[in-house]
Amino acid sequence: MGTQFPAQQALHAPNRYRPDAPVIIVGNGPVGVHLLTELKRLGFDRPIVQFGREESHPYDRVALSSLLQGKVTPDSLVSPLGNLSNVSFQSGTGIVAIHPEHQTVTDQNGLTYQYSTLVLALGSSPHVPSISGRALPGVYTFRSMKDVERLRTRHFRSRHCVVLGGGLLGIEAALGMMRYGTRVTLIHHAPFLMNRQLESRSADQLHRALEAKGLNLCLNTTITEIEGDSRVERIRLRLGEEMDCDTVIFSTGIRPNINLAREAGIAVGRGIQVNDSLQTSFDDIYAVGECCEHNGEVYGLVSPGLEQAATLARRLTGTDISYRGSVLSSSLKVSDLPVKSIGSVSDYGPALIDCTLHHTSDKHSRVITLHRGKLVGAAGTGEWPEFHQLQDAVSKQARIYPWQRRRFLREGRLLAQENQTFPDNAVLCNCRRLSAADIRCHLQHGMTAQELCNASGAAQVCGTCEPLIAKLTATPTEAGAVSKLPLVAGLTALIYAVLYSFLPAFPVQQSVLDPAWPKLWTSGIARQWTGYSLLSLIALSMVVSLAKRGPNRLVRGFRLARNLHLILTLSMALLLLVHTGLQPSTNLNFTLLSCAIALITLGGITSLLVALEPRVQSVHFKAWKRRLAGLHLYLAWPLPVLLGFHIVSVYYF
Predict the structure, then answer these.
(1) In the chain, where are the structural domains located?
(2) pTM above 0.70, yes or no
(3) Counting Cβ atoms within 10 Å, is residue 587 exposed (0-12), middle (13-18) or buried (19+)?
(4) Which fold has domain 329-411?
(5) What is the distance between the terminal CA atoms of the chain, rounded to a whole angstrom?
(6) What fold characterizes domain 139-252?
(7) For the segment 621-631, what is each residue's pLDDT rounded down to a tens digit?
């Protein structure tokens, strides 16, 4: 649950709200612009005023590294905003004061503006460590369009550039400065690069790729002093080493811009504190992006800010939605080597990690991290086709099952194969025995999952293969609920099989003074009644089992037949206890009993797989269920034969 602000709620009265006053957005960075475009997309027609300190038109700050590397032009960074008839831009104009008690803000020119809702998208500023010489000419940060313009000019004069900070932004700045042959050294305080996003093995592959590109790397150290008479000439490292250079770029993190909010009396911590509604301590003032702090977390990347902006836009247009936090992700490409990270993969991350799984090959290095069996992070270098699926799995903290762990360790793949990689012979519909090739024969462009099911006959019986069919049509679907009766029946059958093997035999009546109920498994008449009842249940159970696999007129009641089969089997197992009293058996009786227990055990395992099938949508999972179900049927044929011999032997002898 988000931060609560009970003390400030008393400051507000309903009559303070002015519906004719505009919504004011302070900040025209990526998050502020995204909020604006989302409001327009959702049909928000009230007046909006957006302030920004930078003179330039709103631009895509995320692409600054691409601009520095020469991959894009400045014009391509300008954000297309479309029809903005109800929006007023105040570029190059900063807000210097907020007056929550009057619902007004004051700009740097002394003008005052009334607001109905105020959104603070103030962003952050580069964190520059307190290092001697940091004010010398030749020291830069990498945060804005102006910074990039200065660094692009510096390209032609710099002979040796030092970048401090081996995170995502620092690496991108270093690669950008190498564009024109400048010698670049990257210095990082941790033992490996991107230590907040990667683990050591993936970082080692990144390290080798950067060195192959010509980047010098100094790890486990930092700059303690920048020296020079009139401009940067050298730096001094932690252990006293000196390094000549003419340019230093700081990429050592950020600090949320919170001074404006603090001076207005808005609650702040490391950032501007917000609750799950993204409200600050004043209910008509919101904060989004790198300036805000939600549940003690300040996000240093743009993607959480975009998520916050989209959430707030929906709230401002009347949707009851809450922000529950974001999962950090980053992506980089070094010499055609993709580097990806999502969630927590190292000890520096916010989430606890109790299990780390690795898979390494010549082409890639991959790692996933788990906490209490749930996926909390994934990172790696090299191509990783399923990474976009992992992002969703990490955000939901999906549970990872043992077979998925084994698959990852063996193949480097965690999730089930995607729709385009289903082999033609993969059976997707067990009930109809339809392979992927059979179903694709019916697939037409634009067809939905339901239309494909109707055309092919898939998912028309038990329905558990519907999510797999949805993957073929790229139709979004959610995992189904666990089937309760098969789950209970499966667990009961397995417990029964274990107890039957280890429980002592039931008592036998030794004298007339003993209880009469042991006669149920000792009296000839009682054994005949229980025996014939048992035979009837077995026969009926087999008929029902065959019926659910029979022609179409019978499979329409598949689930009813399956559930009836489970109930009959459990009743048969209970009656078997009464019939035998767990008394020791030999020869034919022992073989018959062993066959029955094996069938109950296999049936229990198969029933558990049936119960979990709607949740675990995997071709491999379905294949294992199909094999066990087939083995269960195969072991059933000796049962009627053995029963026949058992009946003959009882009456003959």
Answers:
(1) 6-123+255-316, 139-252, 329-411, 419-472, 484-652
(2) no
(3) exposed
(4) Enolase-like; domain 1 (3.30.390)
(5) 75
(6) FAD/NAD(P)-binding domain (3.50.50)
(7) 777 777 788 78
